[in-house]
Write a structure and sequence with these properties.
This protein has 8 helices and 13 strands. It is α/β, with parallel strands linked by helices. It has a single domain, classed as Aldolase class I (TIM Barrel, Alpha-Beta Barrel), CATH 3.20.20.70. A 7-stranded parallel β-sheet has the order 1-4-5-6-7-12-13, with helices on one face. Strands 2-3-11-8 form a 4-stranded antiparallel β-sheet, with no helix packed on it. Strands 9-10 form a two-stranded antiparallel sheet. It is globular, with a radius of gyration of 18 Å. The structure holds flavin mononucleotide (FMN). The site of flavin mononucleotide has 25 residues, from β1 and β3.
Length: 291
């Protein structure tokens, strides 16, 4: 599935050879109650092994997404999912409620939004607060509800457990990892914000560990795990599945190769054939932990 860098559906569709048929689902970018222009430039900066981003969730607001953007999607090609951002519990609930009566296949709660734009704190540092958001949103939609977690928790297992108890249908991880970059000549931040999010190859080992830990908690409850963070190759996607991911996401990898999903699919099919496996379900959680 695609997430994050996908905008509101048309970022990659103009590229020759790109097709939504190659992905199981497309997650729209973070959507808030009111339109947001996002943070001042620069919003993206390449690092040695990844990407730093500070976007500020630019989006046209939930009503424009629901009334104008979603009706234009060919939902028979792939599943379109919403990604909800908010600065208060009430905002999460209201945006979720407005997506409930639409064509989206699922609603994902991005819990990595600052509670207050000035203080830079993120929601999902606070276990109980995150669980309250999940429970409150669960109450206003019958759609599958996905909770998207960040890696920077004292105990991501505890967070996963609380979100499951609060009614999430699936867990998605990881979001970007906090980071910063400084221009040494100007001694200013390279980006328009001081604090940014790191994605891409650099964060893959962090994501793999977190997926392993969360999958262990989620599996007994039948809660699906979406693994993402640094996927660029078929081998990366297979590694995530062995770690416990039922579904694998790509975001930053698309900046380097917008046709990467076609290659990932072909590589996974070749791996399955080589290992005499009938499907990816046989890979999920197949890590040998002993011997
Ligand atoms: C430019 C950019 C924008 C993103 N926007 C969102 C967003 O709106 N909502 C969200 O939940 N995650 C967002 N993400 C996080 C990605 O979906 C993904 O979880 C993270 O980047 C790790 O995957 P990757 O290494 O494949 O990029 C964004 C990431 C990037 C790089």
């Amino acid at each position: 599935m695609l997430s994050g860098s996908n905008g509101f559906g048309n970022t990659y569709t103009r590229i020759e050879g790109f097709s939504y048929q190659d992905v199981g689902a497309v997650f729209l970018n973070g959507t808030t109650l009111q339109p947001r222009g996002g943070y001042p430039p620069h919003r993206l900066a390449e690092t040695a092994l990844g990407l730093l981003s500070a976007t500020g969730w630019p989006n046209p607001g939930v009503d424009a997404v629901v009334n104008t953007i979603l009706p234009a999607f060919a939902t028979e090609v792939t599943h379109i999912c919403a990604n909800v951002c908010g600065f208060t519990i009430e905002e999460y609930v209201e945006v979720t409620r407005r997506f409930d009566d639409t064509s989206v296949a699922a609603i994902e709660l991005n819990l990595s939004c600052p509670r207050d734009q000035a203080d830079g704190n993120i929601f999902d540092d606070d276990l109980e607060h995150s669980a309250r958001i999940v429970a409150a949103c669960r109450a206003v939609t019958t759609k599958p509800l996905i909770t998207k977690l960040s890696a920077h928790h004292a105990d991501i297992r505890a967070m996963a457990r609380r979100c499951i108890d609060a009614g999430t249908s699936a867990l998605s991880l990881i979001n970007t990892v906090p980071g910063a970059a400084i221009n040494i000549e100007s001694r200013r931040s390279v980006l328009g914000q001081l604090s940014a999010g790191l994605s891409g190859a650099a964060i893959k080992p962090i994501a793999i560990l977190n997926v392993m830990q969360v999958a262990e908690i989620a599996r007994p409850y039948g809660v699906a795990v979406i693994g993402q963070g640094g996927v660029r190759t078929p081998e990366d996607a297979i590694e995530f599945m062995i770690a416990g991911a039922d579904v694998v996401g790509v975001c930053t990898g698309l900046y380097y190769d917008p046709l990467v999903c076609t290659k990932i699919n072909a590589g996974i099919a070749a791996y399955l054939a080589r290992h005499h496996l009938s499907g990816v379900a046989q890979l999920t959680g197949s890590l040998h932990t002993q011997g």
